């Protein structure tokens, strides 16, 4: 019972701590933004390099967050496969912002059709899953390359396995 409460009470407290400010901002912020943006022109897609370049350069921020999450998940689940750990990272990141169940459900509640909701959220889920898979497999590959100095690059840009690397004259 104590473990159950140790999980349930903080989860409820965190939910309330996140939902209350969200509700306050959701009630007044759209009206405030609308009033302050009246007559203001903003850039719209497709964006030019003046938007794409800063967007790409600052994407290191979530990249570092994916890496930190993967390292923590890797330490917590040492017997899990890289694929499973990557999916756990994606689920953790999506879950932190309520994008697995909450946001799609709320889209349906406010009246969006199911197919629109699924397509909108596929656009959210796919980058998280892709980035999580890339960070996991890249982290493991770089770790293996660093741990095994006999792995080398061939002249045509492929990896030479340790068994054949030992037979190469230097």
Automatic annotation (TrEMBL):
For whether the record's keyword set contains Transmembrane, the answer is yes
Keyword tags? Membrane, Transmembrane, Transmembrane helix
- Where is the chain membrane-spanning? 52-73, 82-102, 122-142
Designated name of the protein? Uncharacterized protein
Originating species: Piscinibacter terrae
Show the taxonomic lineage.
Answer: Bacteria, Pseudomonadati, Pseudomonadota, Betaproteobacteria, Burkholderiales
